Amino acid sequence: MRIVIIGAGDVGTFLAKGLSAEHDIIVIEKNKEKVERIKESLDVLVIHGDGDNPAILKEAEIEKADIVLAVSGDDRTNILSSHLAHSFGISRVIARIDDPNYLEYPKLFRREEIFTVNSGAILAEKITGLISAPFAWRTEKFAMGKIQMLKLKIEEGTPIVGKKLSELGPPKAWIFVAISRKGKITIPTGETSLKAGDYIFALGIPSVLARLEELLGVKEKGIESVVIMGGGRLGRIVARNLSEHGISVKLIESNPQRAKATAEELPNVLVFNGDGTDSETLKDAGATSADYFIALTGDDENNVLSALLAKNLGTKRNIVLYTKSDYINVIESIGVDRAISMRLVTANEILSCLHLGGVTHVALLEEGKAEVLEFELTKNTKILGTPLKEADFPTGAIVGIVVRGNDVIIPRGEFVPLIGDRLIIFALPEAIKKVEKILG
Amino acid sequence: MNVRISFQVIGNFLKFLGLLMLVPTICSLIYGEDDHRAFVVSAFLTTSFGFALEKLSKTSDELEEFHRKEGFLIASLIWITASIFGAIPYILSGVFKNPIDALFESMSGFTTTGASVIKNVEILPHGILFWRNFTQWLGGMGIIVLGIAILPRLAVGGMQLMSLEAPGPTTEKLTPRIAETAKKLWGVYLILSGLQVLLLFLAGMPLFDSVVHMFGTMSTGGYSIKSLSIGAYGGPLIDIIIIVFMFIAGMNFVLHYRLFKGDYKRLLSDSEFRFYFFLNIGAILFVTLELWIRMYPSFLEALRFASFQVVSIVTTTGFATTDFDIWPPFSKWLLFILMFIGGCAGSTSGAIKNIRIMILLKKGFNEINKLIYPKAVLPIRLGKKAATEEVVSSITGFFLLYLLIFLIATLLIMADGVPIITTISACAATIGNVGPGLGEVGPSLNYAGLSGFTKIILCLLMLLGRLELYTILILFVPLFWKK
Question: Cβ of B380 under 8 Å from any chain A Cβ?
């Protein structure tokens, strides 16, 4: 397919990189330096110019595109360019809109014309999800929320360490689809034994997954208080979300005007004007006893430092927002409990919206080292009526769970897929193409 | 610097080059000559060397990505190894005893220079004649571009490799994928090549001659299989066909691609094309006038010889229909100056290229205008767009280096005892990838009489000229090799 990406910021570059393996990508970027960098590193066509300039869009031969992604960091550019793309006759346009204000006018974006992705809202949802399942390192929803995926850590001294998967009893309502050991992701078999420090990816029904808590030996009580650093757009959305759940929220913002505006906007949140890397301010905001510290400023280094400082003062857990992808490998090993990337979350959401090759939902794991894909089987799917063991599935992929109507099935080799089934599949990058071929 | 990955790519490329060496064997077999053995053995040597090199430097099955620095090394090594391995058939078939001569002939082929050290081409077997011109045809559109179109190994990081090989200050991608762009460019090249063979054949040239002369024309290489070059055929129709196709080959191939797609406006609005067009017309006019007054009684005859020689030199082809070394001084030295200008960016021609000359001229005039209006904002316009400051300064740098290398080379060769006119024209003709020069290396003579030392310097000039200096020069900078 021919995909035009407007804006080569973090999100655009990540999407271009991921999609260029299989699709023809044209990137429009106004910053000359970024243009040069992408030209050198990716096999895509880069056009230097404004994405909201019709002449530039024409130069990119936008009318030939199958999909247009307006994902620059500027809402106004995205709004204008997505409307322009629509006017060129593109039926699949996705616009990244950061400011939720724009989304309150349904006439601005008709869903059938331009699909919008609001990174702030998605990120806020992710954070709320993380807080509601505090023992999980990552949560992801599939099949309209019927199925949840959790990333869990095997801690030293828990009963599960050293056990083989087959000894854990027959899986009834959950399945471990993958193990991440020292940064390498593999699909486990019954003979795989668990080691302390491993991360496992579990798929299942949310209510049942909660019982994994016992198996992993973590005991968590409910979350009562949260300290947020950063009163930007994202900080405000998260603060509002959490306070609506009845959690006591305190927010630290260094810019006096912004702190004032935040306080006026959020009556149930106590706002402090101060520096999040200053322990006095942290103490004032209650970091000594808070359940969570969430650092959401735009500055990676500040976020990490303040989170570590808060933890040192007594906060139980922390969540840190980061942008630089190089940080992922170190960030969670130095005392940050959960690191989330705006870029990854947004890119993930956009990929899910694309519905490429019959995929209705995608979750990228570990910076794209693996994917969880959700397929809905239609009458065009080739493997209808064929048992899974005869479907020639690649070794790097596993069908984790099947949702059939209201039933949730953990499929075995004998399982026969039917029309309307939703298959949730875990796949390593090299196997994805083959899976799409089988199910496409 | 990851030399291992570079070797891996070179190995992969050499396997492919070995296969290309089998093409001339078809010719040898058709004509029943025994030089096919030379090609089979060369192909075997090249492929097995490539195979071993790739095997030894490979650590995994995945196509490893390489970075900027390796890109420079790979691009220059591809050209150097192609020229070295491409020289093997000349030695094995006994055309040359001296390996320097074989390397010179091969380098002159791949770089589309067309300077020959063969004393009598007409006695050579058909296979060797085919290979000589085939190397020019491969080098014309570019062996790297061909590699990118066909080998997945080269497509990884292909954009940088292609921009290092493609002539001109900037490289334009036609499609999102580099391999696709390379295929399109080669497609255009193939179509135009086929058309020229057809026309030459219909104009009465034998089929074999048509094919090899097409190789020489489309690549602006200029190797001929006749001692008298195109002059041996004597017909005005053949002259006209070759003039037209030399002119086409000196144009930017991106324009040809757009023309095929029906975009005529682009051609007319392209400022470099207009410059190129009027440069040719202007030079033809002046030379015709002088030749008419001083040499030929007939205007048409003067026009015919002037236009062929001018287009041949401007496009850096180097074919000849007459010995321009005996022309009156104005015409002769105008041709010498044109050797520095060359054709358009993105063409198969050599030398400095029209776009660089245009920008330098505009820059010069701008300085004069600035003296008159010190506060005026004077962008250097190219059609609708203005050239950026970086492009302008990189072109100025290129121009200075080009002249500097030319001067150093002339001094070195004069130190070797070569007469002055022969020296400066040989240097201009090799760094500009033209071929014939003046004096002892004039169109009716060849480079065979020069010493080994001079030939090696000229080889280096051809390589520097074809890869537009920087790609080769960077290898001589110590900083490049530092870890």
Answer: no
**How confident is residue B211, by pLDDT bands cut at 50, 70 and 90?**
very high
Which domains, and CATH codes, for chain A? 2-117 (3.40.50.720), 225-345 (3.40.50.720), 353-439 (3.30.70.1450)
Whether residue A158 lies within 8 A of chain B, CB to CB, comes out as no
Q: How many CA atoms lie within 13 A of A363 on its CB side?
A: 22
- CB A26 to CB B177 under 8 A? no
**DSSP run (H or E) holding B381:** strand B381-382
Confidence of residue B330 (pLDDT cuts 50, 70, 90): very high
pLDDT category of residue A220 using cuts at 50, 70 and 90: low
Tell whether A25 is within 8 A of chain B (Cβ).
Answer: yes
State yes or no: pLDDT of B78 exceeds 60: yes
Which chain B residues are Cβ-neighbours of A45 within 8 angstroms? Answer: 173, 175-176
Helices (H) and strands (E) in chain B, counts: 23, 2
pLDDT at A171: 55
Cβ atoms of A14 and A347 closer than 8 Å = yes
Which of A45, A62, A64 is the best residue to mutate to test the B interface, defined by the most B CB atoms within 10 Å of its own CB?
A45
Q: Which of A356-365, A374-383, B223-232, B376-385 has the highest mean pLDDT?
A: B223-232
Rounded CA gap, A252 and A231, in Å?
A: 7
* CB-based burial, B29-54: b 16+ in 10 Å, e otherwise: eeeeeebbebbbebbebbbebbeebb
pLDDT band at A5 (very low <50, low <70, confident <90, very high): very high
Pick the closest to residue A341 from A333, A349, B140 (CA basis). Answer: A349
A45 touches chain B (CB under 8 A): yes
Report the alpha-carbon distance of residue B388 to residue B384 in Å, rounded. 13
Instruction: Lowest mean pLDDT of A128-142, A251-265, B425-439, name the range.
Output: A128-142
Q: Are the beta carbons of B158 and A43 separated by less than 8 Å?
A: yes
CA distance B477 to A35: 28
Q: Closest approach of chain A CAs to the CA of B347, in angstroms?
A: 21
Nearest to B173 among A2, A20, A45 (CB): A45
Identify whether the C-beta of residue B28 lies closer than 8 Å to the C-beta of residue B93. Answer: no
Write the pLDDT tens digit of every residue in B139-160: 999 888 888 888 887 877 788 8
Question: Least CB-CB distance to A44: which of B68, B176, B179?
Answer: B176
Q: Enter the ipTM.
A: 0.74
Interface test with A, best of B177, B265, B266 (most A CBs within 10 A): B177
- Residue with more model confidence, A126 or B384: A126
B175: distance to nearest CA of chain A, Å? 6
**Are A43 and B178 inside 8 Å of each other by CB?**
yes
B456 backbone dihedrals φ, ψ, rounded to 5°: -65, -40
Residue of A nearest to B175 (CA): A45
